[in-house]
Amino acid sequence: MIAAVAGPGLVAANAGNDAAGIATYASAGSQFTYGTLFFMVLVTVALVMVQEMAVRLGAYTGKGLGALIREQFSLRLTALALTCLLLANTGLVVSEFAGIGAAFELLGVPKYAVIPPAALLLWSLVLFGSYRHAERIFLLMSLVFFAYPVAMILGHPRWGNVGSHLVIPHVEPSKAFILLGVALIGTTVSPYMQFYAAAGVVDRGAKPEDYRLIRADAVLGAVFACAISLTIIIATASAMGGTGPLDSAAQAASALKPVAGQNAELLFAFGLIGASALAGAVVPLSASYAIGEAAGVERSVSRSFRDAPLFLGLFTAQIALGAAIAMTPIDVIKLLIGTQVLQGLISPIVLVYLLILTNRRCVLGPAANTPRYRLAASLVVVGVGAMSTILLVQTVVGWFGLG
């Protein structure tokens, strides 16, 4: 029974520890040392609640988030939700290919020679049904990042400071801090995760009676993913905290020196390739599935373009656009963090849909949010929305030279 239902929550939550996630967490440590730790504790609570609501919808309705939005909202509001998801996912695909390019540049190979064939390879693996086998290899490669907890310990952080920053709020009234805060939200509570988690539960054929195991998977997955994120921040803070924003992937790799020594860049590159390739196909697929589900059209990688033109066309377009943008002459670290800021700005919109759906008894019946849970979830959505709003206001003010 556990094998039948466990997994979607864990996979969805840990998907944030990809190229852009690693860059964002590492930048938090290099810029603000331990200053974002309490904020990450709050983000962990938010992720737990969001993932639980997503899998509850899947378990009790037998439908994915895309289908439920189509049924419960107007055509315009459905289009808004799916446009936000597609925009956010395309940004993520860009970051995955940028991560692949950055990893190979650490190995001395220019990104222009790597990204196009990598995009073609991932596209072919998915369309010709062999991605599940490659996925296992990519997953094993990405397990390299489990070296961060070891690097954190070997880096001898100031445990007193770590502890105090974990429990005492720390906020800096600067645009840089708000910007990184929104990026941390975007990479941790990524919009596509909710669609993936709900769809994953449905695909496994889970029933309401399986909900307790499904909830445990979602909660433990979220906590585990965020624990790894915290170790990345602490390890980077110990290695280079207070030096300012990261300038390169090589700097991000330096936090692994206590574990790998001179081979830190090689170890980091190996993990970055696996994590980016793993998400590089899964992320665009999640958007294609959600939009195909909402549109009520054929959606399967086993179908041809003639049978599933919208589904496979969206997948192909995301891969092509993501790879093309990743090859532009732009700072890789800024690109990676920027895509997470975009996700952070879009997250509150998607979370509003999730909150409304889980509040409705016509959708979930007795499994709908209780008054207390509804209040707590509303605070999460308002908090995420407030961060995004503050960043938008700061940006607009900056455009007019008033900041």
From TrEMBL:
Pfam families: Nramp
Compartments, record wording: Membrane
Domain of life: Bacteria
Keywords: Membrane, Transmembrane, Transmembrane helix, Transport
Keyword match Magnesium: no
Membrane-protein topology: Multi-pass membrane protein
Protein's UniProt keywords contain Transmembrane helix: yes
Entries under InterPro entries matching the protein: NRAMP_fam
Stretches that traverse the bilayer: 31-50, 77-100, 112-130, 137-156, 176-197, 218-240, 266-289, 310-330, 336-356, 377-402
PANTHER family for this protein: NATURAL RESISTANCE-ASSOCIATED MACROPHAGE PROTEIN 2, SOLUTE CARRIER PROTEIN FAMILY 11 MEMBER
Protein name: Divalent metal cation transporter
